Each structure stands twice: as structure tokens, then as C-alpha cells.
């Protein structure tokens, strides 16, 4: 017994580090045993080294120790963008530059045109979340906030076909264009209460089967009981999509012009994002902006050109405990992380009377004013 106790003491003594103790306490970490803790501690030390190098490359603090700092690569936040190599974009590019007003800043969160941050968990369903969130925002804006509710990324992840030009693989990956094509063909995209998210937040698992009967009932006999839903008729690009090469010359003026009108679904290179804790992530630290580096789909909701380092405001699907309360700020001067490579806007069908359509147009302008004045909170007026 004495010999066993001595061995335990030696193993435990090898992990005597005040920062490690603070990390474990802060994130309520527990381990299977000494061997597991030893492995996790090595990962923690590797994370510290990686974070220091990333911050140096970034030129300002943006990375730090977080809950993921003792995790294996396979345990990190999941991404999930998987686009066919021979995919050729066919949707039109919508040009917003003719009507752009060039505000110094815009943040659609201030206008409540963006629903709360979600969490995709350990499922590679970012593409479904990004498409769902873009549909939500279009529904809110087109209706002048008459329709404002969360939709179901689970339906898209589970029900999008796994074959054909727009085939997707649920938790094993997919792409936003495939998501839109599915919703076009479905009765509608259900609200998030009728078909809730059912994938694990902690473990990788198979994609939950498509609830076919529920989907069929969206516009069926029990439509009144299943609740509100959204319908998509198509989609367009905010800028000409980049499908090969370095994508260093994407039209950021067009990208900003589109953001003046609506949040955008965007796909990016998120290779460094697991270590992000807040601040502006520069293009240098994010790395390649090329098409082949895209691995994650998220949502651009605005920009701030008045900050010391101007930035794009991007919403993630890794919960509010990540980054800037679920958001990340990307250097605005460049196509940082390739966010303008694949920026899409779904066309959402909204049934409004002529009077309701006129009221919605007035409300959209009021929402624009809130979105552009939000950074000047002392001047912001709430429009009812």
C-alpha cells in the first residue's frame, strides 16, 4: 500500500502548476485518472504555446486559454462545411452597390434582425445552422419583424438528401447551397420548437433521422398545431463566389453593400477559431482565405469601420460562451478567413397584404436606423 501511495504522489506531483489548477477550477474540469490528467496537461501546455504564437502573428490579443484548451483535435468545436469539388455556382449575384449608403458601422443585432446564438455541439452541421439563420433574418426583415421566430437547423441537417448535385451528409458535413435547395423542395422549414435540435452537445453521434411525418404535416391537416414555418424560393450571392485559388481579390465593397441590407450566410477558414477568446482576428493570424481552406459556415451580421482595427461582425454556432458572446470580429480591410468567398442570401417567401407590405418597408427603414445607430447608444431611438 505504501508503494502504491508513493507512486500516486509522484504522478500527482508532476502536474503541480498554478495556472493548470486555475484552469481546472475555472472550467470545472475532472479527469478519469492521473494518466488522463497527464495527457490533458500536455495539451494545455501545447495550447499555451500555440496561443502565444497566434497572438504574436495577430499583432494584438485575440487568442487565449478557454474551455477547449485541454481537448484533443477530435474533441474541439465542430465545423462541417463539405462542398462537392466539382460544384459550380449557378445562382445570381445580387448587386446592392447602387443603393448603398456607406454607413460607418452597422450591426443588425441592434435591430433584432438576428436570432439568438445557437450551438451545433459535436455535429458537423454548421452549414445547416448558417442557412437556417440566414433564412430567419430574411424572414424578419422582409416582414418588418411581423414574423420573428427561430427555425429548425435539425430539419435541414436530417432531411437534406445525401446524393445529387446538392447532396449533404448531415453531421458529416454539407453546404449552404444544398440546404437552400432542400428547403425549396420541402413544404417549409419548421420552427425550432416543432422540430428541435437533437444532436449531442458533448459526443459525436449519427445524424438524427429525418422526422418525415412531422415535415409532411408542416402544411398539412394539422398546420395550425405545428406552428409557424418559413418557405424559400431560391437564393443569391452577395459577391461573385470564389471556388478556386487564393480568393485574395474578392469584392469587399459589394460585400459591405449587401451587409447594409441584410445579414449574410458566409463560409470561412476557421482553422484558428477554437483558440479565439475576443478582439479582432487579423487576416495574418487567420491564414488562408482560399476556397480550398473553407471548412466552416457562419453568419456575417455587420461591420464597424470606426474601431482602431475596423472589423466585420460574424456570428458563430458554438454557443454564447465562445468568443465575443458567440461572435467573432474579423479584420475588415481584407477578405479575412475568406468570409467573402461564399456569401449567400436566401429568398424567403412572405405572404403580406399590400398594406402589410407598405408597413414592412417602413419598419425595415426603422430597423436600418437602429442597426446603424447602435454604436452611438446615446443617440439611439427605439422605434415602435
In round numbers, the mean pLDDT is 93
* Ends distance: 74 Å
Number of helices: 11
Question: What fraction of residues sit in β-strands?
Answer: 5-15%
**Level-1 CATH class name of the largest domain:** Alpha Beta
Radius of gyration: 22 Å
Using DSSP, what is the number of strands?
9
Taken together, the total number of domains comes to 2
* CATH-defined topology of the largest domain: Cathepsin B, Chain A
The appropriate CATH architecture of the largest domain is Alpha-Beta Complex
Globular, elongated, flat, extended or rod-shaped: what is the shape? Answer: globular
Report the CATH superfamily of the largest domain: Cysteine proteinases
Please outline the major beta sheet.
6 strands, mixed
Order of helices and strands: HHHEHHHEHHEHEEHEEEEH
Helix proportion range: 25-40%
Q: In terms of structural class, how would the helical and strand content be classed?
A: alpha+beta
Unreliable stretches: 1-13, 378-384
Q: What does this entry look like structurally?
A:
The strands form 2 sheets. Strands 1, 4, 5, 6, 7 and 8 form a 6-stranded mixed beta sheet that branches. The protein is globular. Helices cover 32% and strands 12% of the residues. The chain folds into 2 domains: 2-75, Helix Hairpins (Orthogonal Bundle); 97-373, Alpha-Beta Complex (Cathepsin B, Chain A). It is built from 11 helices and 9 strands. It has helices at residues 2-13, 18-26, 34-58, 126-142, 153-159, 176-185, 212-217, 223-226, 252-259, 283-286, 354-373; strands at residues 105-107, 189-190, 229-237, 264-268, 280-281, 296-304, 311-315, 327-331, 344-349. The chain is of the alpha+beta class and 384 residues long. The model is unreliable at 1-13 and 378-384 (pLDDT under 50). β6 and β7 form a beta hairpin. The protein starts with a helix and ends in an 11-residue tail after the last helix.
Amino acid at each position: 500500500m505504501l508503494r502504491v501511495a508513493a507512486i500516486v504522489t509522484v504522478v500527482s506531483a508532476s502536474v503541480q502548476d498554478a495556472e493548470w489548477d486555475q484552469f481546472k477550477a475555472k472550467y470545472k474540469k475532472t479527469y478519469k485518472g492521473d494518466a488522463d490528467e497527464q495527457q490533458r496537461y500536455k495539451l494545455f501546455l501545447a495550447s499555451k504555446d500555440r496561443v502565444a504564437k497566434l497572438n504574436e502573428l495577430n499583432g494584438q490579443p485575440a487568442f487565449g486559454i478557454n474551455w477547449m484548451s485541454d481537448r484533443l483535435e477530435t474533441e474541439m468545436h465542430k465545423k462541417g462545411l463539405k462542398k462537392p469539388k466539382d460544384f459550380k455556382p449557378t445562382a445570381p449575384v445580387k448587386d446592392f452597390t447602387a443603393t448603398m449608403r456607406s454607413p460607418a458601422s452597422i450591426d443588425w443585432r441592434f435591430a433584432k434582425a438576428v436570432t439568438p446564438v445557437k450551438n451545433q455541439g459535436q455535429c458537423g452541421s454548421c452549414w445547416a445552422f448558417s442557412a437556417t439563420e440566414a433564412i430567419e433574418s430574411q424572414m424578419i426583415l422582409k416582414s418588418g419583424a411581423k414574423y420573428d421566430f427561430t427555425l429548425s437547423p435539425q430539419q435541414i441537417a436530417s432531411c437534406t438528401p445525401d446524393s445529387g448535385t446538392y447532396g449533404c451528409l448531415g453531421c458529416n458535413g454539407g453546404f449552404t447551397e444544398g440546404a437552400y435547395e432542400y428547403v425549396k423542395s420541402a413544404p417549409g422549414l419548421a420552427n425550432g420548437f416543432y422540430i428541435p435540435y437533437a444532436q449531442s452537445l458533448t459526443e459525436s453521434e449519427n445524424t438524427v433521422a429525418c422526422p418525415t411525418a412531422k415535415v409532411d404535416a408542416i402544411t398539412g391537416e394539422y398546420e395550425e398545431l405545428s406552428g409557424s414555418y418559413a418557405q424559400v424560393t431560391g437564393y443569391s450571392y452577395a459577391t461573385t463566389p470564389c471556388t478556386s485559388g487564393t480568393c485574395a481579390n474578392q469584392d469587399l465593397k459589394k460585400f459591405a453593400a449587401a451587409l447594409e441590407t441584410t445579414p449574410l450566410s458566409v463560409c470561412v477558414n476557421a482553422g484558428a477559431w477554437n483558440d479565439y477568446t475576443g478582439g479582432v482576428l487579423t487576416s495574418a493570424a487567420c491564414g488562408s482565405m482560399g476556397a480550398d481552406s473553407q471548412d466552416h459556415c457562419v453568419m456575417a451580421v455587420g461591420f464597424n469601420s470606426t474601431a482602431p482595427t475596423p472589423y466585420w461582425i460574424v456570428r458563430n454556432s458554438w454557443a454564447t460562451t465562445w468568443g465575443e458572446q458567440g461572435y467573432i470580429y474579423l479584420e475588415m480591410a481584407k477578405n479575412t478567413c475568406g468570409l467573402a468567398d461564399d456569401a449567400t442570401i436566401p429568398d424567403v417567401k412572405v405572404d403580406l397584404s399590400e398594406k402589410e407590405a407598405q408597413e414592412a418597408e417602413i419598419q425595415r427603414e426603422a430597423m436600418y436606423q437602429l442597426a446603424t445607430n447602435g454604436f452611438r447608444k446615446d443617440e439611439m431611438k427605439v422605434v415602435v
